[in-house]
Amino acid sequence: KEGFEFCNDLTDDQRNELAWGSQQILTATAASTILIYWDNRVILRRGLISDKIFKPGEICNRAFQQKRLISLVNTDLFPGRAEFDSVVENLPSIIVYPISDKGLTIVGGWSKRSFTNSDEKWISGWSDKLYDLLNI
Question: How many angstroms separate the CA atoms of 103 and 64, rounded?
Fold first, then answer.
């Protein structure tokens, strides 16, 4: 299903930035879904969404440990892809970006190899900005 869900206890500034940035990513890239995970909870789901509880797994933990973006360009080739089924089942491509050690930006694509280097830079830059906004 398509949707747009926020965590209830966000400030107006946080909601505005999350709304603006997620809309830009969904319209300017091949993204079909965005999930922001912060302080052990989902604070945003937008685009194609599910009602399943998201819990970071091995791939997300690797992004935290390596402190870098992980791009799964074709999830058919990754046995750990099931950790993202709670975002949206069977996403063909996924970007995972750690927001410092406190959160994650997860962006799912419409098709295999759907994200460009420019998309990755935009997603990581916006996520870095979120750290300052959310870390109050």
Answer: 9
